[in-house]
Design brief:
Layout (H helix, E strand, L loop, with lengths): L6 E6 L7 H14 L4 E6 L1 H4 L6 H17 L8 E4 L5 H10 L4 H5 L2 H9 L6 H16 L4 E3 L5 H17 L8 E3 L34 H9 L16 H14 L3 H7 L5 H28 L1 H30 L3
Parallel strand pairs: 1-2, 2-3, 4-5
Helix pairs in contact: 3-12, 4-7, 4-13, 7-8, 9-12, 10-11, 10-12
The chain binds adenosine-5'-tetraphosphate.
Length: 330
């Protein structure tokens, strides 16, 4: 159904169990955005195979992610919740865009450099063309807005360049997307508890807290979190561990950083870590309860996935039909 709301696109890879970084940096914000925008929330499974995945695990992670989308409060009637590989137009548009992307500009992408350094035994062409697929994801739905963290800014820039290039080469066809800048509360960058100079990641989860961790596991992980040799609970660049814990606490308790600092003025690191863990446990509890209910209801999940596929396909087909016509395909 067409409406006059701006279109917003975002996706998460089913590449592992989601962390509280994925939650605070993406999912929590998705829920806030659903009332103001016509949102397309995708499970980007095509992206996830740029790194080796175990097929049965990938399948399960995909169901888990749809269930988590729902458990966090995303309404599948109001939004389009769908799986990328079920809409073939993503691959079709990727090819057209690939033929309009210069090798040099793809080579400049820092994520490619980082991921190839991390997986030197699997530097595949898909990893290289990942940003073109991401551009296709966005442009296919004529998205006006894309919520992006710093790490994805360069990719969004490429999507914009490709839309402008296509429009200039043929005729205006694709909406040029803008970054959606999250509010201070949303979009927080969460760092690894064991190494707070490194982003918390679902595929590298030494110091990651998972959204589906038990309360005991969450408590244990926070108790072990790296801090520093100081005693002050202050947000500062020289205190990455403490700053990260304050960020997590403030996001889960809906307080500002300075309010959070005040909460811990005369508190030691040990008690501080326990209080942070408690705020996370409480914040995740309703989501975990909803998730346990939804994941058991396979028929409902299949229905959500099917409705999402149909809505996404309809929108994507309109774009790909125009694109194919403009490039000269019969
Ligand atoms: N640590 C984080 N802090 C804040 N936001 C984060 N995001 C990821 N980690 C953090 C946000 O989550 C969304 C989904 O990201 P993705 O699945 O597309 O891949 P990613 O960014 O590479 O996330 P991961 O968890 O690190 O996955 P892997 O390990 O598979 O590469 C994005 O909006 C991202 O900003």
């Amino acid at each position: 159904m067409e409406n006059d709301k701006k279109i917003l696109f975002s996706g998460i890879q089913p590449s592992g169990y989601l962390t509280i970084g994925n939650y605070l940096g993406a999912l929590k914000n998705f829920v806030t955005l659903q009332n103001d925008y016509d949102c397309y929330y995708c499970v980007v499974d095509l992206h996830s195979i740029t790194i080796d995945q175990v097929p049965a695990v990938l399948r399960q992670n995909t169901y888990n992610l749809i269930a988590l989308y729902l458990a966090c409060g995303l309404d599948y009637k109001q939004n389009t919740l769908f799986i990328q590989s079920q809409v073939p137009a993503h691959c079709e548009l990727t090819w057209v865009l690939s033929c309009n992307t210069m090798f040099g500009e793809a080579r400049r992408m820092t994520q490619f450099k980082e991921k190839s350094a991390k997986h030197p035994d699997n530097i595949n062409v898909g990893l290289f063309s990942y940003p073109v697929l991401m551009a296709a994801d966005i442009l296919l739905y004529q998205a006006d807005l894309v919520p992006v963290g710093n790490d994805q800014k360069q990719h969004l820039e490429l999507a914009r360049d490709l839309a402008i290039r296509f429009n200039n080469k043929f005729s205006p066809t694709l909406t040029v997307p803008e970054p959606y800048i999250a509010s201070k509360q949303g979009g927080a960058r969460i760092m690894d508890l064991a190494d707070p100079t490194k982003k918390m990641s679902k595929s590298d989860n030494g110091g990651a807290v998972l959204m589906l961790d038990t309360p005991e596991d969450i408590m244990r992980k926070f108790k072990r979190a790296v801090t520093d040799s100081d005693t002050q609970i202050k947000y500062h660049a020289s205190k990455p561990g403490i700053s990260n814990l304050l960020t997590i606490y403030s996001a889960f308790s809906s307080k500002t950083i300075s309010e959070s600092e005040k909460d811990f003025e005369d508190v030691g690191y040990g008690d501080f870590k326990i209080r942070v863990a408690e705020s996370v446990i409480e914040g995740l509890r309703p989501i975990q309860n909803e998730y346990s209910r939804i994941i058991k209801d396979k028929a409902f999940l299949e229905q959500v996935i099917d409705e999402g596929r149909q809505k996404a396909t309809q929108k994507a087909f309109k774009t790909i039909r125009k694109i194919y016509k403009k490039v000269g395909f019969i």
